[in-house]
Amino acid sequence: MGKMPMPRYFFFAVALLVATSSLLRADGGITVGQIERDRLRVTVFAAPVPIRAGPLDVTFLVQEIPSNQPVTDASVACSVQKVGPPSPGAVRLPAWCSTIVPGALIPATAAHSRNKLLSGAYLPLTEPGRWELGVHVARGPARFTAALPLDVSAPQPPLWTWWPLIALVPAAILLYVWRSCLRRLQ
Known about the structure:
The protein has 186 residues and is of the alpha+beta class. It is built from two helices and eight strands; from the N terminus they run H-E-E-E-E-E-E-E-E-H. A four-stranded antiparallel beta sheet has the order 1-2-3-6, with no helix packed on it. The protein has a four-stranded antiparallel beta sheet with strand order 5-4-7-8, with no helix packed on it. The longest helix is centred in the last third of the chain and has 28 residues, at 158-185.
């Protein structure tokens, strides 16, 4: 048996994967902080990276100390509050963000994440600047509240945010034309 020829599209597929790898993210985003109290460790993740004004996706992983076993029966809620001076520019937010008042307590649910060890919620960050993320945890008689600081950047322009979806159609057309040209050369 001879050596199998490398597919023609292999190098194109690798280049496409490398070009789009920055768009791929795992559940949870970046680690914002860890809180350890009452034999519980709560790891807080947030997305987008970097944290920007607009909807903030916050997820929580609750573990027992010292076994590091995940805890799924803990109740977690969160809130955000602006602690810095007001920003001069208004941020355009999705309609659902205007229904949530900053400072309101929002329950984190397991339905929010595909990873059932995490619970999460969406929070509105109405402007860039210094914010505080309040984390409220309850498990049986143990209850505690902690605050984590957030430095929120200005939102990206809409075109920059949506360019991967906008570029999808022209990319598909170019791939089809390229494939047609290769087939004619055979």
